[in-house]
From TrEMBL:
One of its GO terms (cellular component) is plasma membrane. This is DoxX family protein. InterPro entries: DoxX (IPR032808), DoxX-like_oxidoreductase (IPR051907). The chain crosses the membrane at residues 50-71, 78-98, 110-128. Keywords: Cell membrane, Membrane, Transmembrane, Transmembrane helix.
């Protein structure tokens, strides 16, 4: 049974933690690897370099949408392709466990599960612009 008194706060905690993780991940690309360095890495694995810039913007916009609660269900779904991309281009070949060289795919897969759960459970408390798709009028 779902506790309807606390469930909105659980969704809020999930939304905030996922958003902060994406913001940190984008920050790593911006401040540590630099956008140019990230583009170089993308090129080194056979992806177009410009895709790095799109990825950084996608992560920042998605992170802010989750943190602020702006269409967060849709934002959660929109962020899944980024993680699938990391699994198929980098982490998948490294095996399952994330402590393998080049990191395995367990963490991105778990991150995807969290995004799917958020999309299913809803925006949670304190959302600035809750997603209205899939909700019946009362």
């Amino acid at each position: 049974m779902i506790d309807t008194r606390t469930a909105p706060y659980a969704a809020l905690l999930l939304r905030l933690s996922l958003g902060i993780l994406f913001l940190a991940h984008a920050g790593l690309k911006i401040f540590v690897f630099t956008p140019a360095g990230t583009a170089g890495f993308f090129s080194s694995i056979g992806l177009p370099g410009w895709l790095a810039y799109v990825t950084i913007v996608w992560e920042v916009v998605g992170a802010l949408a989750l943190i602020l609660g702006v269409w967060s269900r849709l934002a959660a779904l929109a962020l899944i392709p980024l993680l699938l991309g990391t699994i198929f281009t980098v982490h998948g070949a490294a095996g399952f466990f994330f402590n393998n060289p080049n990191g395995g795919w367990e963490f991105p897969a778990f991150w995807i599960v969290g995004l799917v759960v958020l999309a299913l459970v809803g925006d949670g408390a304190c959302a600035l612009k809750p997603a209205s798709f899939g909700q019946r009028a009362r």
